[in-house]
């Protein structure tokens, strides 16, 4: 019955054909695209060509003749429309961690006299660790960290806050912040807003320019499907460009790197946020992956994402065996990301039992099973199969099997 | 005659068969491996398998089942013997620029009360830019930069120098520092020694442990052949591990990243120098490239490198047309890297004319033509062809052709 309904929804889904752009393994229900996006079929061919025709054949000349040198900028411009950014504000480089360091330092420089970074309690670790690391490095006379719960961030703003760092969609709960409101609150307090888009970019429209966001970072390997450890991206609003320097002054951020000049002179605009030489393999992979988004209506993508999570939530609610699960995902569409998070004291074992069933989810301590829905390739049939498998595991207490008792490291 | 001699030397070269491990384009003499190493034939197959069997098939589980999570450490351990490092001191991650930031900050923390970074005038730009960037970020009460010429570095050491940063082989001149003496001089002044191995690792033995080096960085895409923008590596001597933290406290440097703990606790040893998620594509490429070094005697590699540059220097000296060139490469073997640098007022046009002949060299401002010799794959025939082409260009004044007058950006 649920499978019939899922089949009907899939038939009626205008985005359903996009699944064919991905190489998904047979017999697997993959609901972990919020951790590692699936392999776009376009990637292997592009990588093969890059190895053979670029690196192998044209070698060093490829920096010019194949445009390697502009790839961070070009891939950034491909990401820009996905996050609501006009051109020349997005750059693809380094990791989120390294980019956060550059942008937090930028924010402190843009708000002299202010010393506090306000960060959300329970935000993704790297966001909090980097903030701590930067504060420890600069010393408390220059930088302090303040934490507040997600629903109290606006109240924690005061005239010492230089920048509010928040992740649009929380990695544990899947709860989505109101980017416009929180950005406005930061501005009213005289602070900047730095958004981490790791769990939103590529799964829903993001409106950086429209919300007046100052700075942002995002991930290349989750909903953008760029491959494991794909380069991250960063956004610097045009009004904040060319005002201050960032501390990781690598040679590729120089105005003219190939002059090999003695003194550092920052490149204009967002290009000064480059540091060292980027992996061309990694950039080519992400570049090919982004082509899947060509011509996609992001509102339609968001509608599908919400329909998938609605469908899954309803299917779980209809299963008596699932009663013991606590739904962390907000019911309100405006507050929901593209995942469903279910808490259970035996969450770890439940996740392992689901994976054994071929339903690939992940576990986040202390008790959360995450079901990530990537609207580019997940189907209603995936959601139905996951709900059935979950009910089956719980009804049969299959997660209590001895083999799930040893707690192993999971990603 | 020079070709006969070259052919004889190639026949007698025990390392000559290694050239077969690389996919070198037909009809090209590639002498730019000190900028971008050639493509090892093992790489495409390994990348294809990584895409299909790892990312494509096992998806997120690959972090464990294919050992992605340990790759920075494992690739680091493969590099360790090439730089004379005992295990658990080398990590492969990020770029040289980002790693320099981590290690310079480490050095300042290890030498509290000292505030000066001593750096070589004319060193590779990123080394100097990063040093400037760090000093500007910390402010002059905490960090100052002092520059000295390469042959005056030891004299410039005093009791405010926290760390001496030097590149073993200079990118312009190809001159090699005496790592042991300069490290000893730094230690006698109470400073640490941080070495950049970009132009030495993979071309000659490096003896980090034996020289008592404190910290080092190196490049994955020059003589290690890991591909354009391959991850860099860093070295932290065991005695300096677990003493201080580095500022780029990304989640992968945490003691237990997958606990997603609230507070940062650095991993033990060199692992705390990881920041964000690394590109697995880029690491797999470098890992495959490093297999070429399996079983190689680094002393034999060094002997071949010196024989190649000796042979090329002699061939150039024998050409009357080459009289106008100034040889920057030291005649003394102990002071020579694995490149020959020739200066000429029309160096840029000469490099372009050589490239048009299929002799791939590069130009470094203001007037240097660099001939990089990668002893893994360059032959004596390459050296002979380059010398002949150079003499031919100069004798015919071919570099004065109109088409070389427009100065374009070259890498």
TrEMBL record, chains A, B:
Binding site for pyridoxal 5'-phosphate: 96-97, 124-127, 167, 196, 199, 221, 251, 277
Modified residues (N6-(pyridoxal phosphate)lysine): 222
Keywords, ordered alphabetically: Hydrolase, Pyridine nucleotide biosynthesis, Pyridoxal phosphate
Keyword Phosphoprotein: no
InterPro entries: Kynureninase (IPR010111), PyrdxlP-dep_Trfase (IPR015424), PyrdxlP-dep_Trfase_major (IPR015421), PyrdxlP-dep_Trfase_small (IPR015422)
Biological process, per Gene Ontology: anthranilate metabolic process; L-kynurenine catabolic process; L-tryptophan catabolic process to kynurenine; NAD+ biosynthetic process; quinolinate biosynthetic process
Molecular-function annotations in GO: kynureninase activity; pyridoxal phosphate binding
EC main group: hydrolase
Reaction(s) catalysed (UniProt annotation): 3-hydroxy-L-kynurenine + H2O = 3-hydroxyanthranilate + L-alanine + H(+); L-kynurenine + H2O = anthranilate + L-alanine + H(+)
Cellular compartments per GO CC: cytoplasm
Cofactor: pyridoxal 5'-phosphate
EC number: 3.7.1.3
Superkingdom to which the source organism belongs: Bacteria
Pathway(s) served: Amino-acid degradation; L-kynurenine degradation; L-alanine and anthranilate from L-kynurenine: step 1/1; Cofactor biosynthesis; NAD(+) biosynthesis; quinolinate from L-kynurenine: step 2/3
Assembly notes: Homodimer.
PANTHER family cross-referenced by the UniProt entry: KYNURENINASE (PTHR14084)
Function: Catalyzes the cleavage of L-kynurenine (L-Kyn) and L-3-hydroxykynurenine (L-3OHKyn) into anthranilic acid (AA) and 3-hydroxyanthranilic acid (3-OHAA), respectively.
Similarity comment text for this entry: Belongs to the kynureninase family.
The protein, known as: Kynureninase
Species of the source: Pseudohaliea rubra DSM 19751
């Amino acid at each position: 019955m649920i499978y019939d309904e899922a089949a009907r929804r899939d038939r009626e889904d205008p985005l359903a054909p996009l699944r064919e752009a991905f190489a998904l393994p047979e017999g697997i229900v993959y609901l972990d695209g919020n951790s590692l996006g699936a392999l776009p079929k376009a990637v292997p061919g592009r990588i093969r060509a890059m190895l053979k025709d670029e690196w192998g054949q044209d070698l060093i000349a490829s920096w010019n003749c194949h445009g390697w040198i502009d790839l961070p900028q070009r891939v950034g411009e491909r990401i820009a429309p996905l996050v609501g950014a006009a051109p020349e504000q997005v750059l693809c480089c380094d990791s989120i961690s390294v980019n956060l360091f550059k942008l937090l330092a930028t924010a402190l420089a843009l708000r002299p006299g202010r010393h506090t970074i306000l960060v959300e309690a329970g935000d993704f670790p790297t966001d909090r660790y980097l903030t701590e690391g930067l504060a420890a490095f600069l010393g408390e006379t220059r930088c302090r960290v303040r934490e507040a719960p997600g629903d109290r961030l606006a109240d924690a703003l005061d005239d010492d806050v230089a920048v509010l760092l928040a992740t649009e969609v929380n990695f544990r709960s899947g709860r989505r912040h109101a980017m416009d409101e929180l950005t406005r609150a930061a501005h009213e307090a005289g602070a900047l807003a730095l958004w981490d888009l790791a769990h939103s970019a590529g799964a829903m429209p993001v409106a950086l320019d429209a919300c007046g966001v100052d700075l942002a970072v995002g991930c290349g390997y989750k909903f953008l499907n760029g491959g494991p450890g794909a380069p991250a991206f960063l956004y610097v609003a045009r009004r904040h460009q060319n005002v201050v320097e960032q501390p990781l002054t690598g040679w590729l951020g120089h105005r003219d790197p190939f002059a090999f000049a003695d003194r550092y002179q920052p490149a204009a605009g967002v290009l000064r946020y480059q540091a060292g030489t980027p992996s061309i393999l990694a950039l080519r992979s992400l570049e090919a992956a982004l082509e899947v988004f060509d011509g996609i209506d992001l509102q339609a993508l968001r509608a599908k994402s919400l329909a998938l999570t609605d469908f899954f939530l309803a299917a779980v609610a209809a299963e008596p065996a699932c009663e013991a699960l606590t739904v962390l995902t907000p019911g309100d569409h405006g507050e929901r990301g593209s995942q469903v998070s279910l808490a259970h004291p035996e969450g770890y074992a439940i996740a392992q039992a689901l994976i054994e069933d071929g339903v690939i989810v992940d576990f986040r301590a202390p008790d959360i099973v995450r079901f990530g829905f990537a609207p580019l390739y997940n189907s209603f049939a995936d959601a139905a199969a996951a709900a059935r498998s979950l009910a089956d595991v719980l009804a049969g207490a299959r997660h209590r099997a001895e083999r799930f008792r040893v707690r192993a490291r999971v990603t």
